Amino acid sequence: MTPTMTLKITTAAQRPELLEPLWAMPDTWPEYVQNDPIGWAHFARIPAVFPDFVLIATGDDGEVVARAFSVPFALNVAGRHGLPAAGWDQTLLWAFSDHRKSVRPDTVSAVDITIRPDHHGRGLSATMLAALRDNAGAAGFAELVAPVRPTGKSSHPRLPMAEYVALTRPDGLPVDPWLRTHVRAGGVIDSIAPTSMTVPGTLAQWRTWTGLPFDTQGPVDVPGALTPVHCEPDHDYAVSVEPNVWVRHSLV
């Protein structure tokens, strides 16, 4: 963030007029990530169903420069044994199911922090993470959790996530910059979510999403992907099963 820039962060409930420019804001997410079926069904509904948990940042000119989505859900209830292996996908399913069934939430999960590309490198990710923590705490929650998608993992797609998470700098902080941001903010790495986001598709779909041929059986390294995508040419499908890293933030 430039020294002369004043950032204003509000919720979607406070400023619903910002939702249209929020969705128009460009991002750098890989196209295949945006075709996760659970995300496709639920992500766009978050501002309507959980407007108090959606944060929108605007700059001096009033334009949207960042967003942070979170959802409340019940973690400490019968049948849910800790943070789920299905990470991001399962959190969305639980949050919307709990809302529909009027189950009282006890935890907030971050599900997305996106910075407008021309504002990358200015510390806005840490600012939005801090705002999510503050927002959840102000709502009376004792914990914010996050199925973190480590930004540097795509450079090591064949390395198991557990081994990647264990990589640290001489100062003891994670090598991964996004995990490092969470730890600096007070987060504690909890566990691996091995099936956090699952994206199936036909070979034609994967060719459209990635520009790659997808004509060889087995793992395919896709730019931006955290792990190889499994390709089955004889059966005309490929599937990405991406792991995330659960991080806990105590708010008390």
Task: Write up what this structure looks like.
By secondary structure, the chain is of the alpha+beta class. The chain has a single domain, classed as Aminopeptidase (3-Layer(aba) Sandwich), CATH 3.40.630. Helices cover 27% and strands 27% of the residues. The chain contains 8 helices and 9 strands. It has helices at 19-24, 37-42, 46-49, 87-101, 124-138, 161-165, 177-184, 203-210; strands at 8-11, 54-58, 64-73, 107-115, 143-148, 188-201, 218-220, 229-232, 237-250. Strands 1, 2, 3, 4, 5, 6, 7, 8 and 9 form a 9-stranded mixed beta sheet that branches. The longest helix is centred in the middle third of the chain and has 15 residues, at 87-101. InterPro entries: Acyl_CoA_acyltransferase. This is GNAT superfamily N-acetyltransferase. Keywords: Transferase. One of its GO terms (molecular function) is transferase activity.
Taken from the alpha-carbon principal axes, the silhouette is globular
N-to-C span: 28 Å
> Can you tell me the CATH architecture?
3-Layer(aba) Sandwich
Number of helices: 8
Order of helices and strands: EHHHEEHEHEHHEHEEE
Strand fraction equals 25-35%
Rg over CA atoms, rounded to whole Å, is: 18 Å
Helix content: 25-40%
The poorly predicted ranges are none
CATH class: Alpha Beta
Overall strand count: 9
How many structural domains?
1
Name given to the CATH homologous superfamily: Gcn5-related N-acetyltransferase (GNAT)
Largest sheet: 9 strands, mixed
Please identify the structural class as seen in this structure: alpha+beta
Mean pLDDT: 96
| CATH domain topology | Aminopeptidase
